[in-house]
Amino acid sequence: MKLLRFFAFAVCLSWAFACTDDFSEIGTSILPEGDQLYLSRDTFDVTSTTIPVDKVYCFTISEWLGGFTDPNFGSIKCDFMAQLYPASEMEFGGENNIGDKLDSTVLRMRFATFMGDSLTPMQLSVYALNKQLPEIPYTDINPEDYYDPSDLLGRKFYTASDISVEDSIKTEDTYARTITLTMPQEFTDMIYQKFKEDPDLFKSKEKFNQFFPGIYVKNSYGNGVVIDIRETSIRFYYKILQGDTLVVKQYKDYLAVTPEVVNANHIEVTNPPYMSAPSADTTYVKTPAAFNTEITFPTQEIIDKLKEDGLNNVTLNTLRFVVPVYTPEANNFSIAPPQYLLFIRSKDVPAFFAKRNMCDNINTFYAAYNATKQEYDFGNLNKFITNIINLNPDTTVVDEKISLIPISFNYITESYQTVSTNLYPALGKLKKNLKASIITVKK
Fold first, then answer.
1. What are the residues whose beta carbons fall under 8 Å from the beta carbon of 144, sequence distance 6 or more?
2. 36 assigned to some structural domain
3. For the segment 128-151, what is each residue's pLDDT rounded down to a tens digit?
4. pLDDT tens-digit profile of 55-77?
5. Fewer CB in 10 Å around end: N or C, the chain?
6. CB 343 within 8 A of CB 367
7. How many domains does the chain have?
8. What is the dihedral of CA 387, 390, 396, 398, to 10 degrees?
């Protein structure tokens, strides 16, 4: 009999989950008299508003470079400053190094994705930094405070398309476009001389970055494409002698931008005039560093509803919150709604990103954008409410300010990832008049 009762209960729950558009009270008796459970559904209004964002914490594994303008999105311009992480073991052939020197050093920036016209001519300029970067950089960081224009390491024109590379190579899984810039011989000689004088300095990222604070890669010309750089390194070229006569050319990537050092993306975004006008039916989420949506979540209303029947007599089975999205406008830059939205108390936002926290599915949740349904479905948020009640059943919670923030997942290794604010250009127009719905089980 107990098995049959459980089966009937499960079937009824499945029916309740499927009927997500019917918000009337269910009140269905699903067990024999004297051993009854009732399902009930209630809905609550969720108000929302657009919140301008002037800066975001920019911990990320990407460096963004370039710029473009779109009438619906606005404009964006990106460049970056970064420290360099020295390899733990460096060597240049020792006594077999021919000429006791490095032949050259080359800055290499590898990227797989971009937004815009791949044939747009762009120019980058690279400078040496003369000041330490902050440990927690934001996107409004001012590069003028960290470099001198006279410390130019080089300039180069480039396009996002490798015209010189055969199409068959471009389709390989391991292929990534690479922008290269040969560094001045003065820089090459400086690095080699310092290595000979103090090789231990290169075994500590702190000591090395005191010696050389990093590089600034500036978008110095062009508008029409933004590239997402995933690997930035400096390659060292030298020659060694094997035996009496064999000359062997060597190269090693001994300096790189990694998650262990500071990577500061400097991003400037402008918004089209229509986004500044009040809207009765739309809020915006736009990245990078432009708009979040803030909602007033009916936390206290939901708790009060549960208390009506007594917290010991009712179980919050489901709390569902879905955010519909308007159909994205056609554009030339493949701008779409952000891939993920974070659900988090507004007051907790700064600490969440500064500490590089992950979603715990208790206080923070995320939803993926469903392009078919055009919505963000946060799934079951019942732990958000039950955690508050469990911590203090008698607490009074004002309706909470919750931020919906575009985020990215950064895969540092196969088993380790972090959450960061999304820096990929994206725009989502969210519908207002939102609802949160609950399903409760009453004894």
1. none
2. no
3. 999 999 998 999 999 999 999 999
4. 998 877 889 999 999 999 999 99
5. N
6. yes
7. 2
8. 0
